[in-house]
Design brief:
The chain is mainly alpha-helical and 206 residues long. The protein has helices at 7-29, 35-50, 57-67, 69-95, 101-127, 135-148, 150-169, 174-201. Helix content is 81%, strand content 0%. It is globular and about 65 Å long.
Length: 206
């Protein structure tokens, strides 16, 4: 159990890799416009980790970041604008529209559209590091695959958003949540999601 190649040291090593990866993701996401490339690079590493074929974490991250920067950034900015428009519409619908069935219907539609954008963000940026394709086709495939695996898409989206959901509902633990986000939360959720994504993408490998 406590040998260098045992489960204990293997788990410690994996946690250390996830901490390094989480910090790399946060640092490279600071300009905001680079978040898309950072997500792609992080998932490029965690998908390999889930298959136990990862190499050097830092080198692999920056290699994927550089190779996918242009397409990931373009897709991220497109989806960011769409998400911002939906968020503004949702705010207007919730606060400025008269309460009633029309408002409820509008809020439901906008919430559905918002989660659809989250689905596409998750799949498009991970498809980018899995398959070679155009931006248009990657976005189209992200939509189709996410809807074809809707239950898994919802689960993965909730895991990816869990840091923000936790702060919203358990804000009194903000200090602990912030520390977890800085150290491992984002990479940890990406690592869990990668097991699901690898299983889904294997169906499309040929």
């Amino acid at each position: 159990m406590f040998s260098i190649e045992g489960k204990f040291f293997g788990t410690i090593s994996r946690l250390g890799d996830l901490v390094i990866l989480n910090i790399l993701f946060l640092v490279c996401s600071i300009p905001i416009v680079t978040i898309g490339a950072s997500i792609t690079a992080m998932y490029s590493v965690t998908k390999k980790m889930a298959e136990e074929r990862e190499g050097y974490i830092v080198r692999s991250f920056f290699k994927a970041f550089k190779e996918n920067f242009r397409q990931s950034t373009v897709m991220w900015l497109i989806l960011l604008v769409c998400g911002a428009v939906i968020s503004v519409d949702l705010f207007i619908c919730s606060n400025l529209m008269k309460a009633g069935s029309l408002q409820t219907l509008g809020k439901g539609f906008l919430l559905l559209a918002f989660f659809l954008i989250i689905f596409i963000v998750l799949y498009s940026l991970t498809l980018q590091c899995t398959f070679e394709n155009t931006i248009r086709n990657t976005l189209k495939n992200a939509l189709l695959i996410s809807l074809g695996h809707a239950p898994w898409s919802l689960l993965m989206s909730l895991l990816a958003l869990s840091p923000f959901i936790s702060i919203f509902y358990f804000g009194e633990y903000f200090g602990t949540e912030l520390l977890a986000m800085i150290l491992i939360w984002f990479s940890g959720m990406a690592y869990i999601n990668s097991f699901i994504l690898n299983r889904i993408y294997k169906k499309y490998m040929n």
